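User: Structure tokens for this complex, please. No commentary.
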Amino acid sequence: TIADLKGAKQGRLSLSVVTTAKYVIPRLLGSFCQNYPAIDIALQVINHQQITQRMLENKDDLYILSLPPEDIDLCTKPFLDNPLVVVAPCNHPLVGQTQIPIEALNNEPFIMRESGSGTRRAVQKLFDKSKVSVRVRLELGSNEAIKQAIAGGLGISVLSKHTLNSYGDRGELTTLDVVGFPIQRCWYAAYLNGKQLSVVAQTFLEYLLESGKSN
Ligand code: PGA
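Assistant:
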């Protein structure tokens, strides 16, 4: 409530978020900061492994990620869905088919995120479980670069739905209806257990959880 926020009008907020959250968090920060223009924000957009490293060094107030590390004592709060979907170029032969068996991905040219990526970990887990082995043609450390590579015909990939824009990426990209997808996940807001959150961080956390409810 407004009364709670009085103490939050100034200060510094340090956030680290996984690569997919960059499609959502800056906008949320925009509306948050309209009410608190005097707050300074530092936002890192990195992968899961890099977030884990920053947690170990107690670098930030809050972290946003999909796979909270189990060996760090964290308080985690889920706030928004973050499903993974199969992304292909619009002219891919499987486009338009429904309930495509996952085995159809065997030997497909595939573009994989870098090691240390949570997206990669979730994809690899499903492929291992389903005994599917794709042909990794390219490893890329950026969701945007992967989208460009898919559009360029280098292969298919699995990406967070948040990386796809509502305009269908100029009609170049589409999703495939493969059994086992979407991989259902969510984003968590997390902080080190026992860490005393600043008023600003506490206020932003509540704002995040609240905005998740309305989406
Ligand atoms: P990643 O995480 O950047 O480590 O792949 C993204 C996500 O899990 O949504």
